[in-house]
């Protein structure tokens, strides 16, 4: 029954929450989630993303502009954000080996100074990470183009420091260049990125994976 409805209304379902779809079909939210997992997805959110991607492939990005998405309630939006955040955190934890996480944490804890760099869409994560590390360790600075004189600041980096570069697809060259300079200065360089082939990984002593989502709701969970 669920499969038949989705097949006949896939373009509409691509914009619906699990609760909205369940209400339309007069079944439980849990039944929708179980169905999503039964057909190979991690959950309803991932199935909906797949339907959205298929819609864009068929009609182009402009083809969805004239469609009226079903607007979620405040409660539904909150639930979607937390569900996405939980899935992203779980996937990130599964991808990163405990050995590497422990090694990076140990170097961070012992560092004289920690530098965090990232530009573009990764800057919000850079700011948040620097704030949290400063709260616990008090020795962290954001190091980006435009934050002071680069030539002067790079001379402050040495082999007792940890330099963390954050970035994902559409990698910003500034971050990669700063990681390279920090490595030349002897710092322990960590890349937080989305894949092993990332150019940030090439400049790093260790790499930690970041799992991200391209869905509109999941953007708030990154």
From TrEMBL:
Residues 1-58 form the HTH rpiR-type domain. Keywords: DNA-binding, Transcription, Transcription regulation. Gene3D superfamilies: Glucose-6-phosphate isomerase like protein, domain 1 (3.40.50.10490), Winged helix-like DNA-binding domain superfamily/Winged helix DNA-binding domain (1.10.10.10). GO terms for biological process: carbohydrate derivative metabolic process. It comes from the Eukaryota. Residues 104-222 form the SIS domain. PANTHER family: GLUCOKINASE, RPIR-FAMILY TRANSCRIPTIONAL REGULATOR. This is SIS domain-containing protein. It comes from Bracon brevicornis. The lineage of its organism: Eukaryota, Metazoa, Ecdysozoa, Arthropoda, Hexapoda.
């Amino acid at each position: 029954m669920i499969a038949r409805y989705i097949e006949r209304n896939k373009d509409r379902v691509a914009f619906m929450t699990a609760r909205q779809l369940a209400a339309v079909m007069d079944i439980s939210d849990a039944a929708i989630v179980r169905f999503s997992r039964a057909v190979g997805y991690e959950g309803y959110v991932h199935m909906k993303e797949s339907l959205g991607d298929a819609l864009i492939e068929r009609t182009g990005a402009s083809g969805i502009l004239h469609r009226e998405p079903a607007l979620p309630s405040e409660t539904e939006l909150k639930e979607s954000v937390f569900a996405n955040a939980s899935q992203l955190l779980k996937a990130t934890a599964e991808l990163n080996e405990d050995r590497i996480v422990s090694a990076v944490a140990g170097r961070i804890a012992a560092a004289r100074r920690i530098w965090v760099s990232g530009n573009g869409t990764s800057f919000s994560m850079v700011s948040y990470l620097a704030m949290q590390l400063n709260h616990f360790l008090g020795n962290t600075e954001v190091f980006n183009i435009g934050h002071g004189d680069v030539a002067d600041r790079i001379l402050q980096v040495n082999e007792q420091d940890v330099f963390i570069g954050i970035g994902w697809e559409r990698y910003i060259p500034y971050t990669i260049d700063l990681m390279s300079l920090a490595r030349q200065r002897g710092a322990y360089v960590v890349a937080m990125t989305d894949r092993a082939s990332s150019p940030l990984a090439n400049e790093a002593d260790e790499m930690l994976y970041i799992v991200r989502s391209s869905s509109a709701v999941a953007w708030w969970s990154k």
